[in-house]
Amino acid sequence: MIRGGLVILIVAAIAVAILAMTGDPGRASIIWLGWRADMTAATAVLIVFLGSLIGTIGWRTLLWILAAPERAARARDENRRRQAAETLTRGFLAAAAGDGSEARRLALKAAELAPDSPGLVRVLAAQAAEAAGDLTAAEAAYSAMLAAPDMRLAGLKGLMQAALEQGDQDGALRYAAQAYAQTRTARWAWRALLEARLQAADWTAALDLVKSALDRKIVPPVIAERARAALLAARAAQLEPSSEPKARAQAMDQASEAAKLQPGFAPGVVMAARLLAADGKLGRAETVLEQAWKAAPHPALWLAYRDLKTNETPRERAERLSGLVAANPTHRESRILQVEQALIAGDAAAAREAARTLEGEPATARTAGLMARVAYASGEPDEARLWMARGLSAPSEPDWSDLDPEGRAFAYQPADWARLVATYAETGELIHPRFERRERSLSELPELPLSYADSAAFLQAEGQDALLHPAEDHGLTEDEPADAAGPAPRRRSRPPRRLASGRRAAK
What would the pLDDT profile of 252-301 be if each residue is shown by its tens digit? Predict the structure, then answer.
C-alpha cells in the first residue's frame, strides 16, 4: 500500500511539473448534480490523484481489518510451531544426556504441539524410552516407524540396536538383513552383517558382502581391496591344513591373489610364498616376497625368503638375501637384515659396520640380541654379555611377536583373523594378537653362554678367528665340505626346516 501511494504521488508531481513547464495552466470544469466547479488543469490533476490515493488507502485498510482473524490464526500456528521445535530440541538433548524421564515428558508434549511432524515425534519417543531403559516402549516406537516408508530404515536400525542390547544376535541380524535389502546405502546394516560373518569365520560370505558393498559404493575401493586381501588370506589359512590337493590348490590361489591385491599385507604374502614353495614354484615365491619387501618389510618376510632354499652354503644364502636388502635399502628391517646377512656370511667386520646404523634407535629385545651376536662374532664377549643383560629387560617388537616359538608366522585363530580383517580394511595396519596377549614368540635373544669360564673356548679356539654364534640353519648336509661354510666345529645336524616354520634359537 505504501508503494502504491508513492507511485500515485510521483505521477501527480510529474503531471503538475509538465503543466508548469508549458506555461499554460489550462482550465478544467466539473458539472455534477447541478453543481459546477472551475479550476486549473493542474488542480484537477492533483484532485484526481489525491482522490485515488485516499481510495487506495481506504480499500487496503478495509482489507487489513477483514484479514485480522486470519492473521491471528497464522500467528498462533507460528507460535505453536516454534514451541514444538523448541520442545523437540529439548527432548532430543535430554535423550542424548540420558535424562529419560524429562525426554519422555517432552516427547508427550511434542506429540501435542507437532501433529504435522510425526516422524520426529516417534524418533524422540523411541530415544526417550531407550534413555529411560524401557526397551519394550522403545521397540514399540521403532515398530511403529515400519509402517511409514520414509521411516522404515530408521525403525529397522532402532530395532536392531534394541535386539543387540537384549543379546538377540539372530534378531539383530534379521533386521540388518531387511535394511540391507531395502536400500543400497545402509552402511550400518552392511557393517553389522559383515561383523557377523567375521565372527562366524564365514570368509566366503564376507567376501560376497565386500563385493556387494563395492558395487553399491558403500565403501571406497581402497577399503574394499584391503578387506578382500585379508579375507582371501583368512580363507587360504582355513584351507591350508587340508590334505586334499584341491583344497590346497584353492588355498594357494587365494593367498596368491591376496598378495597381488596388497603386497604390503605380510600374512597373505608369507602364506602365498609358503604354498607356492611347497608346490615347487620357488621363482614365483621369491617374486612375491621381493615385491612385499619393497612395499612393507616385515621380519616374517625375510625369514620366509631365507627358508625358500635349504641346499645352499652360508655365503650363497647371504648373497641371495642381499637382493632383498637392495629392494628397500633405507627401511629399518633392511638395515637389520643387512646385519643378519653379514652374520650368516661369517663377516664380523661387515656385521659390526651394518650394526652401527641401528645404534641410535631405542633398544628392543630383538636389536639387543642382534648386537650381542655381533659382539660375539667380533670376539667381544663382555660387550655381548652387556647386550644380553640389556635385552632381558628391553621391550619386545610387535612385528616379531607374529612368529610363534616354533617359528611359524601368523599362526592366527579365526577370532584373530576376524579382528585383522576389520582393522586392516579400515586402517591398512596390522594387528598383533600374540603381542596383545603377551604370548611367547620366537626367541629374540640368542642362546649364548653367559659364564666367563665357558665362553672363551667356545668363542675362539686357539689359532682360529672368532666364530659366529649361534650357527644358522644353512641347509648344509653332512656330506658337504666343511670349508664351504667356514669354521664351524661341533655342529649339530638338524633336519631340514619348512618355510618359516622351524625352530630358530637365534637370528
Answer: 999 999 999 999 999 999 999 999 999 999 999 999 999 999 999 999 99
Please check whether residues 342 and 448 belong to one and the same domain: yes
Q: Is residue 92 part of a domain?
A: no
Q: What is the pLDDT, as a whole number, of residue 458?
A: 36
Same structural domain, 118 and 158? yes
Please name every residue paired with 29 in a beta bridge, in sequence order, or none if there are none. 38
Whole-angstrom Cα distance, residue 26 to residue 145? 79
Q: At what angle do helices 187-199 and 152-165 cross, to 10 degrees?
A: 30
Percent with pLDDT over 70 in the chain: 84
pTM: 0.72
Q: What angle do CA 207, 212, 214 make, to 5 degrees?
A: 95
Domain count, the chain: 4
- Measure Cα distances from 11 to 6, 18, 358 in Å: 9, 11, 94
Does the structure show a pLDDT above 90 at 500? no
Cβ atoms of 144 and 122 within 8 Å: the answer is: yes
Predicted confidence (pLDDT) per residue in 353-370, tens digit: 999 999 888 999 999 999
Q: Are residue 168 and residue 44 in the same domain, yes or no?
A: no
> What does the pLDDT look like over 324-346, one tens digit per residue?
999 999 999 999 999 999 999 99
Q: Among residues 392, 366, 386, which one has the least CA distance to residue 444?
A: 366
83 inside domain: no
Residues 286 and 341 grouped into a single domain = no
Place of cell 627401511: 331
Q: Based on the domain organization, do 102 and 160 belong to the same domain? A: yes
Which range of residues forms the domain containing residue 205? 97-215
What does the alpha-carbon distance between residue 39 and residue 26 come to, in Å, rounded to a whole number? 8
Which CATH number is 129's domain given? 1.25.40.10
Q: Which of 371, 429, 362 lies closest to 396 in space, CA to CA?
A: 362
